[in-house]
Amino acid sequence: xxxxxxxxxxxxxxxxxxxxxxxxxxxxxxxxxxxxxxxxxxxxxxxxxxxxxxxxxxxxxxxxxxxxxxxxxxxxxxxxxxx
Length: 83
Description:
Blueprint: H1 2-60, H2 75-78
């Protein structure tokens, strides 16, 4: 009976420790997510400017002649310069 009580106490202690660890991991994950979201928000103006520049440039050139802009389905044709 005493052995069973000791094992139950150990089990309860183990579960509590796991709960503490899980709570700490959730806190760390939330902080990382918050930080990543802030970085993403800060980069939006740069993304918008780059997108704008690419659209302006794309309007001036024939995109089919650009091998780096080919889809993978047409990748074998990229060497021939026709996508």
